[in-house]
Amino acid sequence: MAEPNTNPDAAVTSQEEISQEIGTLHEKYRTSLQAGGPEETTARLNFPPYRSSLLRHPTKSLHHTDPEEIELHSPAFGERDVHALESDLTIQHNGEPLGERIIVAGKVIDGDGRPVAGQLIEVWQANAAGRYIHKRDQHPAPIDPNFTGVGRAITGADGSYSFTTIKPAPYPWKNHFNAWRPAHIHFSMFGTDFTQRIITQMYFPGDPLFSLDPIYQSIVDQNARDRLVAQYDHSVSQHEWATGYRWDIVLSGSNRTWTEADQEEH
Amino acid sequence: MKHIPTPAQTVGPFYGYALPFKDGENLIHPSRPGAVRLHGTVTDGDGATIPDALLEIWQPDAEGAIPQETGSLVRDGYTFTGWGRATVDNVGHYTFTTLNPGPTAPGKAPFILLTVFARGLMDRLHTRIYLPEDIQALENDPLLSSLEEPERRTLIAEREADGGLRFDIRLQGEGQTAFLSYPRTPQQVGAAE
């Protein structure tokens, strides 16, 4: 097999070739799983169909480390850092942004089910035409002067969050020829331990681009991929105002020694 | 674990208008006593600089205490919150202004936790930036003692003449930085062996 072209802007490979590479890797995983191999729960750092990963993943194995004091804590964020209105991405300018107004709400918990309370969530996204307010985004889709696409929130005592925004559109990128990303919202989260730090992407149910996208498919396990897809939730929708999606987020396990007093705080 | 963690996805190329914030890289004002420049370059498997990486540091204060003050995103110029965020420039270079961290317990080797995000990097990578001075503490450090010399060396910052700290990050290949995994925290490099 020829060496893949590692230039991220080359866009020379066809979707068929990329899909075939994805299919081969997924097939190997399913075979391994059926033979009793381990279940994968997150994205692979080394996923060649995502061309930009080729030179940017570590080739030496990671070192298993017992977390020390600083790794068992996270920075503190609060009202001083984030204003309550920053969770509404539709009121940051003088006019109403164009597009389908939505509410995305859910809870952040850790692997043991503890709510992640009072922590920072940051989101960013493209507008309803698939355009980011970023100088390097050259996609010729219109910029919306009333939509920046950036929000922040501090989780509630029960780990809950809610953003009001506009449904983002898919957009083209240069991984391969005629490559399109499924519509998504970027999410950045902190836990109680810095080891739980995560940046990821939330997707919308039923997106026809899922099977074609090497970033989404870098998670080779279907159950794990499903965990990035929000669900339409009519109880989140608001009468004559916005449709609602629910997406709950699970951070990895905390390595702290939790006391009963810690548990009772929640 | 009762619940399976949500998978990670790359930070992508377009975080530049969203994640950086004013004085994100200045954990302390550069004019304050004790201010130290921490800087270096991020490179890929070809040794080429990466122009679109985002870095975060998280550390104890000079006395080794873990800061729990809010206000990282709206810095007041006086409160040391211990956390900062910086983007690399067009030639892959980053700069933080911070304090030398103290040991969190007597005899512990002081270090700064560093987390790397980038387009092309599907999940964040954690590593540690150790201060070079306390040789005995470095020798006793459980992580450093478990590494072979070439990898151990990648985790110890170089002290510059002006008191600054130099720490380069290589994501892949010759001299790759030693990256860390932790218990209960899934991280998937490639297919399981």
TrEMBL record, chain A:
It comes from the Bacteria. Keywords: Dioxygenase, Oxidoreductase. Gene3D superfamilies: Aromatic compound dioxygenase (2.60.130.10). GO terms for molecular function: ferric iron binding; protocatechuate 3,4-dioxygenase activity. Residues 104-132 form the Intradiol ring-cleavage dioxygenases domain. InterPro entries: Intradiol_dOase_C, Intradiol_dOase_core, Intradiol_RC_Dioxygenase, PCDO_beta_N, Protocat_dOase_b. Pfam families: Dioxygenase_C (PF00775), PCDO_beta_N (PF12391). The keyword Metal-binding does not apply. One of its GO terms (biological process) is 3,4-dihydroxybenzoate catabolic process. PANTHER family: DIOXYGENASE, PUTATIVE (AFU_ORTHOLOGUE AFUA_2G02910)-RELATED, INTRADIOL RING-CLEAVAGE DIOXYGENASES DOMAIN-CONTAINING PROTEIN. Belongs to the intradiol ring-cleavage dioxygenase family. This is Protocatechuate 3,4-dioxygenase subunit beta. It comes from Nesterenkonia cremea.
